[in-house]
Structure formats: structure tokens, C-alpha cells
Amino acid sequence: MSAGFAIISPISSPDDHFTNLGANRANNVEYEFEYVSLRKGEHLTSAMKALNPRGQVPFIIDDGFVVCESSTIMRYLCQKYSLPDHWYPADLKSRTGVDTLLDWYHSNLRATSGYVFMKGMQVSVFKMSPPREEYIKLKEDIMLMSLKILEESYLTEEGSFLLGASQPTIADVLLGCEVTQTCMLDEADRERVLGGKPKIAKWLAALEETTAPHFAEVHTTIRSTAKEMEASSK
Hints:
- It comes from Marchantia polymorpha subsp. ruderalis.
- With about 230 residues, the protein is of the alpha+beta class.
- It has eleven helices and four strands, in the order βαβαββααααααααα.
- It has two domains: about 5-85, 3-Layer(aba) Sandwich (Glutaredoxin); about 85-234, Up-down Bundle (Glutathione S-transferase Yfyf (Class Pi), Chain A, domain 2), CATH 1.20.1050.10.
- Helix 1 (about 15-25) links the parallel strand 1 (about 5-10) and strand 2.
- The chain is globular, with a radius of gyration of 18 Å.
């Protein structure tokens, strides 16, 4: 590449969404995208493990420098390409708030995708053996508590985004993409998980509207898959 970087990712990862709306679309930063199919195990090939020994995606390659982990990738892009300050504020207190959310996410709200995978995709999409009920329950408990904290503590009336911000940060992208994955659950389960959480619903709507059309574009695949799964279950 003559400029920019390459991103190796499955569809709908948070950093892919951020790359589209924050880096490329808004600031004309050039990049290449290489899709990796988790279903086919493409992330576990020797070529991929040579770049990331853990065999995990997403990661980016910037002039030979490999950056892993979604939150680290987004921090890196913000600073490397001097993206608008609202994504990752220079103000120490504001940035610390964003960092707190990013760190909290990995041990808490991240359980959402694990729950969604086991309930909605492990058997029907990936054709794997059914998960053990205790594993589902563990992910469910962490997810529900995290969503409660998100609704009652991290979303306020002061602004449309996390911690009362008036514009989205990379934490909104990371957490918003995670919660959006609940579209893969059946209608009853989705209502049980997100019902009665008006702040989350309002926040997701604001995030999609503010970043339009990129948020919807990046989530096209999982939303269409969700519709297919719903139709096949009837």
C-alpha cells in the first residue's frame, strides 16, 4: 500500500465500523479491507497466526506494524491520523472516562456476544455441538448485569451518548456494536434482554443516526442473517 493501513476482520467488528465512519469516510484515510470468515476458520490459518499468534481477529497492519484488539486499534487510529477530538478526547478527564468504558467492556458487556453466539448461532449457523447450559447461564448473568449498569449508570439525560457526551466516542462504537448483536436473538429473548431499557434504545438510535449511513452498512450482514434465522425458525 502507498498510504493508510490494512484491516483484517470479520464483518461487523467495532473497529471495522469505526474505520469506515471515523477514518476513511470522515477523514479520507486510505485503507484496505480483508474479510476473514470465522465460519471457515480462516482466522486460524498459519498465515494469520504468523501475524497474530493467538489466531484472533480483528487486527490491522500499518506499514508492517500489527495492532490487535478492537479498543487498542481504535485508540491507535485516533492518534495516528489525528481524528476529530470527540472520538478520543485530548482532555485528560474525558479521555479517562472513555478508557474506563473500554476497560469495563471487556470483562462485562463483552459477554453479550458470547451469549448471542451460544443461543443463536453456535448450532444453527456454525453447526457446532450445543453449548452447556451452565455456560449460557454464566454469560447471561454477566450480560444482564452489564446492560443494567449501562442503562442506569453510563447513559444519562445530559447527552445522547455514553457518560452524557454530546458526540460519540470510540466507546460508543465498541459498546454499541456489542449491544446491536442482540438482533441475532429470537424476538422473545431479545425483548427479555432489552425490554424496559429506554435509554439503551434511545442511545442506539442516536448512534445509528449520527453515524449514518455507516453504522447500518457495517451491520447489514448480521441483520440479514438474523432475518434469515427468524424466517427459518417459523
